[in-house]
Design brief:
Blueprint: H1 2-22, E1 37-42, E2 54-58, H2 65-75, E3 79-84, H3 91-96, E4 103-108, H4 112-115, H5 118-125, E5 129-132, H6 137-144, H7 148-160, E6 163-167, H8 169-172, E7 177-179, H9 188-193, E8 202-204, E9 216-219, H10 228-241, E10 247-251, E11 255-259, E12 264-269, E13 272-278, E14 302-308, E15 314-318, E16 331-338, E17 341-343
Parallel strand pairs: 2-6, 3-4, 3-5, 5-6, 9-10
Antiparallel strand pairs: 1-4, 2-11, 7-8, 10-13, 11-12, 12-15, 13-14, 14-16, 16-17
């Protein structure tokens, strides 16, 4: 028995050695005079490639390889920049090995001083693809909003027209309206019980200006963390308080909504994405401080389109005009809320 265990241990050690020897090495290098940089992998010479606008809203959890490959294709294989306020340069080797790319660099922008640094802003502006990592969106708002970093992000989206994506907190800030999470994380039960709870902190088009998403609010980790109810509260508050024709895009973990330059979206990954479409003529029946939300409207308060993702991309949804007749590959549902309880 002991001999068998020793042989098994030897096999495991040899296997680990073989895997290590064939694993992709992380060749990220640090360079002086690049503030906020956690390092670059690939060619440090700036390149110019033909790019197409794209937007990737990723729901968190395991990264979606297919969505990154889609962005790299939109980028023309140029320079990729990852921005974050905490964490490491782990995305560098991951993205570099997924497809044709000149370089990948990660910037850790964790102060307003760095966010207003000209070199940092220029690194972002020179990118052919930008990815906003997960973390805490309240830090992104605190450090980046109203800075040269914010201006650089919006330049990529609206002038240079390159693919921009974000996962989890990075996805949370891509809509024109966004939930900040600046006090503490908000659960669905808390929001539904009191839509005017102090944790319901929403902002209106003062940060990232992504094409076609000015009247959209996103949510992430959607099914995994049961966030449908809080998202519905966000929609109710925005429609009522801001008189906006608000829409919702929600993405579960391991899943991404990928929107092309024409505003047309598909869903890549392994879980589901949801498109929420309230009717401006169907206001909540009860929306008041300290009272549970009721948004029933004969059990047809919010029209929802659900798409099951696939690794190669599934379904179709028009985000340019929200033309419901163009939705394919999913199924329509009605959601409503009665006395603080969401029905789907």
């Amino acid at each position: 028995m002991l001999k068998r265990l020793q042989n098994l241990l030897l096999i495991l050690l040899l296997s680990a050695s073989w895997l290590t020897s064939y694993a992709t090495p992380d060749t990220t290098k640090l360079y002086r005079n690049r503030p906020a940089s956690l390092g670059i992998i690939g060619d440090t010479a700036d390149v110019k490639t033909p790019t197409k606008l794209g937007l990737v809203m990723m729901g968190g959890g395991k990264d979606v390889d297919g969505a990154f490959k889609w962005m790299l294709n939109q980028s023309g294989g140029g320079d990729v920049v990852v921005i974050r306020a905490s964490g490491t340069a782990a995305y560098n080797p991951y993205i570099y090995e997924l497809g044709k790319v000149n370089s990948v660099e990660t910037l850790k922008i964790d102060s307003r001083e760095l966010a207003n640094n000209d070199t940092v802003a220029n690194i972002i502006r020179n990118a052919e693809m930008l990815f906003i990592a997960g973390g805490d969106q309240s830090n992104y708002m605190k450090y980046w909003r109203g800075t040269k970093t914010m201006d650089a992000i919006n330049y990529l989206l609206n002038k240079k027209h390159v693919p921009v994506g974000g996962t989890s907190a990075g996805c949370a800030i891509l809509g024109g309206f966004y939930y900040s999470g600046e006090i503490a994380s908000l659960t669905a039960d808390t929001a539904l019980a009191n839509p005017y709870h102090s944790l319901v902190k929403l902002y209106n088009n003062d940060f990232v200006h992504a094409p076609y998403l000015q009247n959209v609010i996103t949510d992430q980790h959607y099914v995994t963390r049961s966030r449908q109810g809080r998202h519905v509260v966000f929609l109710a508050r925005i429609a009522t308080d801001h008189h906006a024709d608000i829409k919702g895009i929600a993405v579960d973990e391991r899943t991404a909504v990928c929107m092309d330059e024409k505003g047309q979206a598909m869903v890549i990954g392994s879980s589901k994405a949801y498109f929420l479409l309230p009717d401006a003529n169907k206001a909540p029946e009860t929306l008041a401080p300290g009272k549970p939300l009721t948004w029933n409207q004969n059990q047809q308060a919010i029209k929802v389109y659900e798409i099951q993702a696939t690794p190669d991309g599934a379904g179709h949804f028009d985000l340019k005009k929200f033309d419901l007749s163009k939705a394919t590959g999913g199924n329509w549902q009605w959601w409503w809320v009665q006395d603080g309880v969401l029905r789907m």
